[in-house]
Design brief:
The complex is a heterodimer of chains A (441) and B (417). Chain A is α/β, with parallel strands linked by helices. Chain A has two domains: 283 residues, Rossmann fold (3-Layer(aba) Sandwich), CATH 3.40.50.10540; 99 residues, formyl-coa transferase, domain 3, CATH 3.30.1540.10. Chain A contains 18 helices and twelve strands. In chain A, the strands form three sheets. In chain A, strands 3-2-1-4-5-6 form a six-stranded parallel sheet, with helices on both faces. Chain A has a three-stranded antiparallel sheet with strand order 7-8-9. Chain A has a two-stranded antiparallel sheet with strand order 10-11. Chain A is elongated. The model of chain A has no long low-confidence stretch (mean pLDDT 97). Chain B is an alpha/beta fold and 417 residues long. Chain B has 18 helices and 15 strands. Classes of the chains: A alpha/beta (441), B alpha/beta (417). The interface between A and B is large, with 160 and 156 residues. β6 of chain A pairs antiparallel with β15 of chain B, so a sheet runs across the interface.
Chain lengths: 441, 417
């Protein structure tokens, strides 16, 4: 018997695009909600441009690999929401849904005539999550973000790098991933509150604002201690403290050494291990793993204070040793002895070489009608009663239009054909995909 | 008028969490749940993590502990003692959610696993948030924020162009983000279980892996590999990429930086808008030359446009000025700010983001960062500062569980609380 899913019978009208919004609804879908992704090929962002289409596959609206991974567990309705008929269909869908989620700029839905008040007239207990760059209120609400801009303005980019160098920042849109997390968190929290009280609400999430609390201790250091972050030795790269600068906590955890990334054999681009010793005891264990070399027995390395003071020398010694081992070998040897060490892992490492992720079935193959069989990322949590599993590949654009308008809304086949003919379900001038022709038979 | 309360009002959460899970407890508490933080007698070791108020180390002065433990009540409880475990069972009988971050197997070894606790409380949701989850070859490995950012893939994506820092290591972004990544997914799984419980009445057990949460937080890196076989380069202040991409981080007149996403966007229309922006400070250069209405000419001159013109414009103004001038004209650019600069942002004040949190024991209040989102019907608010060690022992053990004050003393002497 199939296991129940946590969000069984929950329906989501999903206007979201690009990354943060779709990453939110992907997880609601994995948890069992029916996600109706409303798309329009003329104003689509997320499927194209694609830099993740396999080399032997034509680039089109249905062949982005990253879109596939970001949009599993959803259905697609292609619909011109800017037409009166399209808007009417959206309203009927909202009337039978629980959650509306979107990540447009702050005025878009309201300008369509779909502000929260309008939604409430259709569905009084709707949970509406807006995921805009700066939120729907505040003087800069019309400013826009991408992940890197939200990260910069909110103070996250500055946290990453070596002292006296430009910020290294984040090599990806952390706040598209994490913005997606907050979108899903808001939707679930609003849904729980609705189930408890019978009341829906508008939850106004901002990508920029939600980045700020991810810097909490640094902010308290300024509000309580008056200490800013433009200071010598900050940020200290991978270290807990930069040698030769005042001993101030860097907001990552305890101030200790060793605490760094070290090159490993054979010295390739991602051949690095990180090693951290939280205590003298852990340091003594590392010394044993390294074969108890004479240098490690020196008094200056015996205490945390000494190791911090002589960190350059300490790190050089450790790297001489680490370069003799492969990163997985170093990890196994160290962890077996109770030493904190793990490899720097590329995407290839995670998918192909990480024994833990393999054992936990993190990447399982899934078949997509246009892309074939590829590995898709799974949930990082295992729920005993309601497992969160990927159950649908990402939808082809408009793949579920018939299923939704006929099955959910009760349209006839004639009405479906009329909607294709008048540009409601697909632009009249645009070539249809073969599965659309099948739909109309 | 009834008090407007947070969306999780009425939920009782027991938190047995260290640095790995305290942020999840804070999120639940700030959103209205009654979170009871259970610390070992003497206090949770996270109280010893700096920075400290006025740089005076003390378990009640850790700003890190303060931040991550708002909106919680605090009790001490010695689970190593039989009395402590009996008290825990009584608390668990009335709880909706337990969040724990012990080593896998430790709760079971104490007879406090989900199977035994749910006998008296079938609706109980028990979430174990651990470095690698409850199973697998790395289950018992040690970790840290840095270790997770290495193995999760964050470091492989972040770092420097060789031109900026030759031979640079991969860089782990700061702020303790690995714990945040784990806590966000833990929160999602707990809320999903709670929603399911509202319709089924059933609780469940949840096994969350921080390593997996981190491995999921690198945007398209996995898709780049799975669909294209690409291993990505680290670049200063911008996205990882299969090949070198144009710079997006520029030094402003005040020595700070601006993130300006320009490369890949250079159409004739964009050039016109860019010329207007640069011209607002007399820095348009040759950008109004009609030759730039030709896409091929733009492509041939993209490095001149980005490096000389955009770079020159940004170098002519302070970063905050560039940020606002650009955004007002529709450019998605931003200043690279420090935390203290964020504090002065009037947009956040308009949204009532900062919260004064009273510390009655110190006779002072401090400004804390507040809500990531505005919940219009049920506010996200910090309800109290972090608890002092055992601050609510009497309130919970005596008033709620009905122990006598004398019993508290005995339990304290035996390290049960």
């Amino acid at each position: 018997m199939p296991r129940p899913r946590a969000l069984e019978n929950i329906r989501v009208v999903d206007f979201s695009w690009v990354r943060a919004g779709p990453w939110a609804t992907r997880w609601l879908g994995a948890l069992g909600a029916e996600i109706i992704k409303i798309e329009w090929p003329e104003s689509e962002r997320g499927r194209l441009p694609s830099s993740t289409t396999p080399r032997d596959v034509e680039v089109n609206l249905n062949t982005s690999g990253n879109f596939n991974d970001t949009n599993v567990n959803k259905k697609s309705l292609s619909l011109n929401v800017r037409s009166p008929k399209g808007l009417e269909i959206v309203k009927r869908l909202i009337g039978i849904s629980d959650i509306v989620i979107e990540n447009f700029s702050s005025r878009v839905l309201r300008n369509w005539g779909l502000g929260y008040e309008a939604m409430c007239e259709i569905k009084p207990d709707i949970v509406y999550v807006s995921m805009s760059g700066y939120g729907h209120t505040g003087r800069n609400h019309q400013y826009t973000t991408f992940g890197p801009v939200a990260q910069s303005v909110a103070g996250l980019t500055y946290l990453s790098g070596l002292p006296d160098k430009p910020p290294a920042g984040w090599g990806w849109s952390y706040m598209d991933d994490t913005g997606g997390m907050y979108g899903a968190m808001c939707a679930l929290t609003g849904l729980y509150h609705r189930n408890q009280t019978g009341r829906g609400q508008h939850i106004d999430l901002s990508q920029m604002v939600s980045s700020v609390p991810l810097n909490g201790p640094a902010l308290l250091d300024i509000t309580a201690n008056g200490r800013g972050s433009r200071r010598a030795g900050f940020p200290p790269g991978n270290r807990a403290h930069w040698p030769g600068t005042p001993l101030i906590n860097n907001y990552r955890g305890p101030t200790v050494a060793p605490h760094n990334a070290y090159r490993t054999h054979p010295g390739g681009y991602n051949d690095w291990c990180v090693i951290v010793c939280h205590s003298d005891q852990e340091w003594q264990r590392l010394a044993q793993v390294m074969g108890a070399p004479v240098w490690a027995a020196a008094d200056k390395f015996a205490t945390v204070a000494g190791r911090l003071e002589h960190q350059e020398e300490l790190d050089a010694h450790i790297e001489n040793w680490s370069q003799t081992l492969g990163k997985y070998e170093l990890t196994e040897l160290s962890q077996a002895a109770g030493v904190r060490a793990l490899p720097v892992q590329s995407a290839e490492d995670r998918v192909e070489h990480d024994p833990q992720l393999r054992d936990r079935r993190m990447y399982l193959p899934m078949e997509h009608p246009a892309l074939g069989v590829h590995k898709v990322q799974n949930a990082p949590f295992k729920m005993s009663e309601t497992p969160a599993e990927n159950h649908l590949p990402s939808p082809l654009i408009g793949q579920h239009t018939r299923e939704i308008v006929e099955g959910l809304l009760g349209f006839s086949r004639e009405e479906l054909r009329a909607g294709f003919a008048d540009g409601t379900f697909w632009p009249t001038q645009r070539a249809r995909f073969p599965y659309m022709e099948d739909m109309l038979r | 008028m009834t008090e407007v309360r947070g969306p999780l009002t009425g939920l009782r959460v027991l938190e047995l969490a260290d640095e790995k899970g305290q942020f999840c407890g804070k999120l639940l508490g700030d959103l209205g749940a009654d979170v009871v933080k259970i610390e070992p007698p003497g206090g949770e070791p996270c109280r010893h993590v700096g920075p400290f108020l006025d740089d005076i180390p003390h378990p009640e002065r850790s700003l890190s502990f303060w931040y991550y433990n708002t909106s919680k009540r605090g009790i001490t409880l010695g689970l190593a003692t039989a009395d402590g475990r009996a008290l825990f069972r009584r608390l668990a009988a009335e709880a909706d959610v337990i969040l724990e971050t012990f080593q896998p197997g430790r709760l079971a070894a104490m007879g406090l696993d989900h199977d035994s606790l749910r006998e008296q409380n079938p609706g109980l949701i028990l979430c174990s948030l651990t470095p690698f989850g409850q199973t697998g070859p790395w289950r018992d490995f040690l970790s840290s924020d840095l270790l997770h950012l290495a193995a999760g893939g964050e470091m492989a994506s972040s770092g420097y162009d060789a031109a900026d820092v030759p031979d640079a290591p991969p860089i782990a972004p700061g702020g303790g983000q690995a714990w945040h990544m784990g806590c966000h997914f833990a929160y999602i799984s707990i809320m999903a279980a709670l929603v399911y419980r509202t319709v089924s009445g059933l609780g469940q057990y949840i096994d969350v892996s921080i390593h997996e949460a981190c491995a999921l937080t690198t945007e398209a890196a996995i898709a780049n590999y799975v669909y294209r076989g690409e291993v990505l380069l680290r670049q200063t202040g911008r996205h990882h990429a299969a090949g070198v991409t144009p710079r997006t981080q520029f030094r402003a007149k005040d020595g700070t930086y601006v993130t300006a996403l320009v490369g890949g966007r250079l159409t004739p229309k964009y050039i016109g808008e860019l010329a207007d922006l640069l011209d607002s400070n007399g820095m348009a250069g040759d950008l109004r030359d009609p030759k730039y209405q030709d896409a091929a000419v733009i492509a041939a001159n993209s490095s001149h446009i980005i490096e000389d013109l955009v770079g020159g414009y940004i170098a002519s103004l302070p970063a905050e000025e560039v940020y606002h001038a650009a955004q007002k004209r529709g450019f998605t650019w931003g200043a690279v700010r420090t935390p203290e600069e964020v504090l002065d942002d009037p947009h956040l004040q308009d949204r009532d983001f900062w919260q004064q949190v009273e510390h009655p024991d110190l006779g002072r209040s401090f400004v804390y960062p507040g809500a990531a989102a505005i919940y219009h019907d049920s506010p996200w608010r910090i309800s109290r500062r972090a608890p002092l060690i055992g601050e609510h022992n009497a309130e919970i053990y005596c008033e709620e569980l009905g122990l006598f004050r004398g019993e508290l003393s005995v339990l304290s002497e035996s390290q049960a609380i």
